[in-house]
């Protein structure tokens, strides 16, 4: 499975908002600068996330975007499903434009379906909070590596 750029950017934006959950709203300019995403592309992403109920927008001075739910309640599966549809792994050549002559003999189809189920279960278990926790761990590891050794 290869994640689309849209999914990657959406997850980056959502995790940026998650890091400020319960605090002030975050501006689109802030997210764009921190995550290196163009403002116009980010506007499309955030609009879709707002319409789906993942985030809310606050107008006026001090406004911006914030998560509509705690990061622990937002599952990766739900975000990916919204962006790519329920079946984000192609399960069979039957769905192709042309007719597959060997469709009745197709053994790999079962494996694709099994893999899709495993991936779905895996993504249902991961929350935005999990991603934020992992990011913090990685930042700490990076800081520890950069500390100069004392002689």
CATH topology: Arc Repressor Mutant, subunit A
**Separation of termini?**
48 Å
Overall shape: it is globular
Whole-number mean pLDDT: 83
**SSE class:** mainly alpha
Main sheet: strand order: 1-2
- Give the number of domains: 1
- Number of distinct beta strands: 2
CATH architecture level-2 label: Orthogonal Bundle
Q: Into which percent range does the helicity of residues fall?
A: 40-55%
Give a structural overview.
The structure is a single chain. A two-stranded antiparallel sheet has the order 1-2. It has helices at residues 5-18, 28-35, 39-51, 76-84, 108-124, 128-146, and strands at residues 55-58, 64-67. With 151 residues, it is mainly alpha-helical. It has one domain (5-144): Orthogonal Bundle (Arc Repressor Mutant, subunit A). It has six helices and two strands. The N and C termini lie far apart (48 Å). Strand 1 and strand 2 form a beta hairpin. It is globular, with a radius of gyration of 20 Å.
């Amino acid at each position: 499975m290869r994640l689309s750029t849209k999914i990657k950017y959406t997850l980056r934006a959502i995790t940026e908002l998650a890091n400020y959950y319960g605090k002030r709203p975050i501006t689109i300019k802030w997210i764009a600068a921190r995550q290196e995403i163009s403002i116009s592309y980010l506007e499309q992403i955030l609009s879709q996330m707002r319409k789906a109920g993942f985030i809310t927008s606050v107008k006026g001075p001090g406004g911006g975007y914030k998560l509509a739910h705690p990061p622990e309640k937002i599952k990766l599966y739900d975000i990916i499903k919204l962006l790519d549809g329920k079946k984000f792994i192609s399960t069979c050549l039957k769905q192709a434009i042309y007719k597959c002559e060997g469709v009745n003999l197709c053994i790999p189809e079962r494996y694709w379906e099994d893999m899709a189920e495993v991936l779905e279960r895996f993504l249902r278990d991961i929350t935005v909070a999990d991603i934020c926790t992992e990011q913090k761990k990685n930042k700490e590891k990076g800081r520890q590596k950069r500390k100069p050794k004392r002689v």
